[in-house]
């Protein structure tokens, strides 16, 4: 075994432990009553997410990679996301909090043992480069972000805290011109990229303008004040129908306070921060704002070109700033702060063309439906991506303040229904050149 393989093994173990610390924080911040409660019909009880994370780790690392005996085969059905809708999970005979904690710890012991013996340098594609372990790290981080969204929907006094994000020394506004021509979208070389990011392929993207920053709370409030929610001209037919049926008047968690707005963030109600990106808007709201502003949402290919294309070399980078994994000065990720940062707060993370904060802060809605790239092959299971392909889901890019750095990159694709806004979703605008 090479030194490199042993370094990878250590790195994987460290990622598993670091990720579990976050899961523990999110599930120990509240009492057992809160853990088993349903805080919103859109979300699972937190105790379901916890045991589901353990169950996926058991299925893939303990049973599949390790070839070991099941720890708890009897509970597979309860924690299969396709068997029960989120709103129905509270009524299932779930493991209680103590049982769930014991279960995930037992599975983790075995998974670390499997890691210690796995051939990361050769053999099965599932195990090569530690992919299965990376997939499970990312899966747990994805559920950590989901649990963070559940925390945001929970009522009652605050239980989470974090320092405020940095303020920009130079505010960022305006737009840049991204030159037309081909660029490489997706990846065939990123070791832990998931199936829907593959394979790398050339896409010709005509020249377009894209905003250097995400739309801010103040800009979005101007849309509201201009009567944007009452003017069907700005909304698609489906968007207007949804705006009417759901009675949308402002982003989720906003309330009117005289002539202005306050927002409730993890149990604290404060005036909206004018210069921070708007968050908790659905696709239809984002598209309506863009149309009102005389712009549009970027396509997924435009977003990725803005985030990855280096005009000096013609190469696509892993991240806007280059190929190195995110550092805290480059992006607001990983729940380091409990809110998105104002534009200009992470100048180290800007793209070569000067587009800021594409990674972190808020997930950005694109105008694209979720589809497989040319040559897509499901791996290692159809239910991660393929079953969601089609016109029903819109792609979001870039990650939020609640996304871990191991679970996002320039190629990473998230998706959700266009009506959803419990996620940490915002947007930036684009327009034709
Ligand atoms: C990629 C965020 C859409 O949460 O539904 C978690 C990630 N897949 N468990 C989701 C996921 C299976 C997924 N998203
Ligand atoms: Fe899951």
TrEMBL record:
Q: Where is this region: Disordered?
A: 314-333
What EC numbers are recorded for this enzyme? 1.14.99.50
Cofactor(s) the protein requires to work = Fe(2+)
DinB-like domain location, by residue?
16-147
Where do the annotations place Fe cation binding? 52, 139, 143
The catalysed reaction is: gamma-L-glutamyl-L-cysteine + hercynine + O2 = gamma-L-glutamyl-hercynylcysteine S-oxide + H2O
Q: Which UniProt keywords apply?
A: Iron, Metal-binding, Monooxygenase, Oxidoreductase
Q: What is this protein called?
A: Hercynine oxygenase
Task: Show the taxonomic lineage.
Answer: Bacteria, Bacillati, Actinomycetota, Actinomycetes, Micromonosporales
Q: Which gene encodes it?
A: egtB
């Amino acid at each position: 075994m090479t030194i490199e393989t042993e370094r990878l093994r250590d790195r994987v173990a460290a990622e598993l432990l670091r990720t579990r610390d976050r899961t523990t924080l999110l599930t120990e911040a509240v009492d057992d009553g809160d853990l088993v409660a349903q805080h919103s019909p859109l979300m699972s009880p937190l105790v379901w997410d916890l045991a589901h994370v353990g169950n996926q780790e058991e299925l893939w690392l303990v049973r599949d990679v390790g070839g070991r005996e099941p720890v708890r085969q009897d509970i597979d059905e309860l924690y299969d996301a396709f068997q029960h809708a989120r709103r129905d999970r509270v009524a299932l005979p779930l493991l209680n909090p103590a049982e769930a904690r014991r279960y995930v710890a037992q599975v983790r012991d075995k998974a670390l043992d499997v890691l210690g013996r796995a051939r990361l340098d050769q053999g099965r594609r599932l195990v090569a480069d530690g992919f299965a372990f990376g997939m499970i790290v990312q899966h747990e981080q994805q559920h950590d972000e989901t649990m963070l969204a559940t925390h945001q929907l929970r009522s009652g006094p605050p239980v989470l805290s974090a320092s405020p994000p940095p303020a920009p020394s130079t505010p960022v506004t305006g737009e840049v011109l991204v030159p037309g021509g081909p660029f490489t979208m997706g990846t065939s070389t990123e070791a832990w990229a998931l199936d829907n990011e593959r394979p790398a392929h050339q896409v010709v993207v005509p020249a377009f303008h894209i905003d250097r920053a995400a739309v801010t709370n103040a800009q979005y409030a101007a849309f509201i004040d201009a009567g944007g929610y009452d003017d069907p001209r700005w909304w698609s037919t489906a968007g207007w129908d949804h705006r009417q049926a759901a009675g949308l008047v402002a982003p989720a968690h906003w309330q009117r306070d005289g002539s202005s707005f306050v927002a409730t963030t993890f149990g604290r109600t404060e005036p909206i921060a004018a210069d921070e990106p708007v968050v908790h808007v659905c696709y239809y709201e984002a598209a309506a704002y863009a149309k009102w502003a005389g712009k549009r949402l970027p396509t997924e290919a435009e977003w990725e070109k803005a985030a990855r294309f280096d005009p000096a070399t013609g190469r696509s980078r892993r991240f806007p700033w280059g190929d190195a994994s995110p550092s805290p000065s480059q992006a607001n990720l990983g729940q380091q702060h409990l809110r998105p940062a104002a534009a200009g707060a992470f100048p180290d993370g800007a793209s070569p063309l000067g587009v800021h904060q594409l990674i972190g802060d808020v997930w950005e809605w694109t105008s694209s439906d979720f589809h497989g790239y040319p040559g897509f092959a499901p791996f290692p299971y159809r239910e991660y991506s393929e079953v969601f392909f089609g016109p029903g889901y819109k792609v979001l890019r870039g990650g939020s303040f609640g996304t871990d750095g191991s679970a996002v990159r320039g190629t990473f694709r998230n998706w959700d229904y266009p009506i959803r806004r419990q996620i940490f979703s915002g947007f930036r605008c684009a327009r034709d050149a």
